[in-house]
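Hi F.,

I've been meaning to write this up properly since the lab meeting, where we talked about keeping a consistent format for the predictions we share between groups. The idea is simple: the sequence comes first, exactly as it goes in, then the C-alpha cells exactly as they come out, then a line or two of notes. No screenshots and no reformatting. I'm using this chain as the first example so we have something concrete to point to.
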Amino acid sequence: MGIRKKKLSEIESNDSPIISTHEGGSIVLANLDAMFGWARRNSLWPLTFGTRCCAIEFMAVGASRHDFSRFGNEVARPSVRQADLIIISGTINYKMAPVLKRLYDQMPEPKYVMALGACATSGGPFYYNSYAVVKGADHVIPVDVYIPGCPPRPEAYFYGLLQLQKKITKDRYYTEKKLSKAKK
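Output, unedited:
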C-alpha cells in the first residue's frame, strides 16, 4: 500500500514532524528546523522575573486550576542557564534594569522574552508618578510577546504562550546559523 505524502502547503504549523504511518511504525519526514522547532516550542523552561502584582497572577498560572505544564511550559527554573524563556511580570525600575539585562545575556540561545502586564509592557500606572520606572521591558531587552492587562488573567498568559509557540515554530534558527557560517 502506498504512503500518502503531504505537500509542504498541506502541513500546518501546529503539525508534529510525524507525517504518516505504515505497518512498521511511523515515518518522520522533516527538516532539521521543523524538528527542533517542534521540540523547542513544546518544552519551554521559563525563568521568572516577578517584581510586583503581576507575579502573583503568574503564580496562579502554575496552580492546579490552570496548570501551564499542559502547554509544554514546564517547571519555572531558578537558574538562568537552564531557562530559554524569561517572563517579566511587574514594574522594572532603573536599578533593576542592569540585573535584567545581565540575566538575559546569561541565557543560552535561542532565548525568548514575554512581557506580562501593563508595567512590563509600557511602564503601567507607575510610570507617570515615579522617576525610577522604566517605560517598558523593550527599553532594556528585546521582547517577543507582550501580554496586556493590569494584572493580566491566566487566560491572557496562555494566549500569549500560544502566540510565542507559533513564533518559535516559524523560526529558522539552525538554517540561518548554517547559512551564516557558509558565507564566512
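Notes:
The chain has a mean pLDDT of 76.
The first helix runs from residue 32 to 41.

If this format works for you, I'll send the rest the same way.

G.
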